[in-house]
């Protein structure tokens, strides 16, 4: 009888934990992946490296074209992946019709049978390749090299696999080895602001960790009321109505962006230009301008191209300041008696990434059941919660967690 009661209680607790993890993961997963249906998006980053975001198991097209549109049929181009530890890997080499898919030797085994070029595009100077069934291990920086051109040309493309990092963790839950912990320690970085995918305009692409955004088109997203429909904007997921908050945004090479804060009541489906409740600086045509309606715009006396912008909100004091963290130069301060919750605001209509700078991960982990968690970080807590719960489930209930 006792045994029956105990087993029922255990079973019940286990089911609750399972359900909780499942629902949580589903929510995170779907909120991220509802957006990421199109696997062939790419953004330009400040460093001149193109970033291609691809969902795990989809095909990745890495773009590389000569602007001269020179015919490549009789030429040579070489794709390599730059590894940190293992040096360069041969991904795809095409030499006047001779390549790895028709007998040429030397391709790295990681890419064997998975990489193809676009034969019909060669005559347009297009040396793009397709990697089938992209895996996490394919993430990294690729170079597309034309060594025989005068002068030689090399392009860099970063492939970013958008998987659920969380799901990946979950796969390893049964094996809480030191390796996994330490890997996680490097992976999980702490962002002061996480973007809210439900507010993102349908042309915006958010990275899986919800800390970068760029503009692409052609996504079909549900028209929910939180979503920006007229301006290509996205808000941070957390609003502030007290205290001080600050975040850095890498704007890099982006030729046009708007950063600032928006009040909770700001109308997302109406014309932004005339509404109050949005304090921002915008960069356009080489000029920095501070705007907040109904005040007139202020053109800022900034001559150089800024790489990063620090946004500092002191809600209680009623100040919103912008500065250049690289030179510690003040750009502009808005003074206003704030009465509402304010959300970080990001706007770009260009295919260049705006990235919220991650900070060094404050997590410290000691293995063997002494864990120190940082509960200020949502991502970290999610990951750790999964690990913790599964570890508990395994230890106390003798069940594996199947996700
Ligand atoms: C992606 O979108 C297309 C239609 O646009 C749909 O048919 C397909 O099922 C979607 N794929 C995923 C993985 O959601
Ligand atoms: C190169 O070819 C690929 C594959 O057909 C295509 O997706 C890409 O848009 C082409 N690039 C250019 C610049 O035409
Ligand atoms: C689990 O641990 C074993 C032994 O340390 C290792 O060989 C195996 O690859 C690990 N599995 C995973 C999924 O990390």
From TrEMBL:
Question: Which keywords label this protein?
Answer: Membrane, Transmembrane, Transmembrane helix
Note the superkingdom of the native organism: Eukaryota
Domain B30.2/SPRY span(s) in chain numbering = 173-363
List membrane-spanning regions. 6-25
Q: Which residues form the Ig-like domain?
A: 54-144
UniProt cross-references to InterPro entries, sorted A to Z: B30.2/SPRY (IPR001870), B30.2/SPRY_sf (IPR043136), Butyrophylin_SPRY (IPR003879), ConA-like_dom_sf (IPR013320), Ig-like_dom (IPR007110), Ig-like_dom_sf (IPR036179), Ig-like_fold (IPR013783), Ig_sub (IPR003599)
Pfam families from the xrefs?
Answer: PRY, SPRY, V-set
Q: Name the protein family.
A: Belongs to the immunoglobulin superfamily. BTN/MOG family.
In Swiss-Prot or TrEMBL terms, this protein is called: B30.2/SPRY domain-containing protein
Species in which this protein is naturally found:
Sparus aurata
């Amino acid at each position: 009888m006792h045994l029956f009661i105990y087993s029922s209680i255990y079973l019940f607790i286990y089911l609750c934990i399972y359900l909780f993890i499942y629902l949580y993961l589903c929510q995170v997963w779907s909120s991220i992946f509802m957006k990421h249906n199109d696997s062939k998006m790419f953004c330009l980053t400040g460093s001149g490296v193109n970033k291609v975001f691809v969902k795990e198991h989809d095909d990745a097209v890495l773009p590389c074209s000569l602007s001269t549109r020179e015919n490549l049929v009789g030429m040579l181009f070489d794709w390599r992946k730059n590894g940190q530890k293992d040096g360069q890997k041969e991904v795809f080499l095409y030499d006047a019709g001779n390549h790895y898919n028709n007998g040429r030797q030397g391709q790295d085994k990681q890419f064997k049978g998975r990489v193809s070029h676009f034969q019909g595009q060669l005559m347009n100077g297009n040396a793009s390749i397709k990697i089938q069934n992209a895996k996490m291990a394919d993430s990294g920086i690729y170079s597309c090299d034309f060594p025989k051109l005068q002068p030689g040309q090399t392009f860099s493309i970063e492939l970013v696999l958008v998987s659920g990092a969380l799901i990946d963790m979950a796969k390893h839950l049964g094996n809480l080895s030191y390796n996994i912990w330490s890997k996680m320690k490097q992976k999980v970085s702490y962002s002061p602001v996480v973007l809210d995918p439900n507010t993102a305009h349908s042309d915006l692409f958010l990275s899986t960790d919800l800390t970068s955004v760029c503009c692409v088109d052609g996504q079909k997203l549900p028209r929910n009321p939180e979503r920006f429909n007229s301006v290509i904007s996205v808000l941070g997921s957390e609003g502030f109505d007290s205290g001080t908050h600050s975040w850095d945004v890498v704007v890099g090479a982006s030729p046009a962006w708007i950063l600032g804060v928006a009040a909770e009541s700001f109308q997302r489906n109406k014309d932004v230009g005339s509404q109050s409740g949005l304090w921002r600086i915008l960069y356009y045509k080489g000029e920095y301008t501070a705007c907040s309606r109904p005040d007139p715009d202020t053109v800022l006396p900034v001559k150089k191209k800024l790489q990063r912008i620090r946004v500092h909100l002191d809600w209680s004091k009623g100040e919103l300041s912008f500065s250049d963290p690289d030179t510690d130069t003040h750009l502009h301060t808005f003074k206003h008696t704030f009465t509402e919750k304010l959300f970080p605001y990001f706007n770009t209509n260009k295919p260049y990434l705006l990235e919220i700078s991650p900070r060094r991960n404050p997590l410290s982990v000691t293995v063997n059941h002494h864990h120190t968690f940082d509960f200020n970080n949502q991502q970290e807590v999610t990951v750790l919660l999964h690990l913790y719960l599964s570890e508990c489930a395994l230890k106390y209930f003798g069940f594996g967690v199947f996700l």
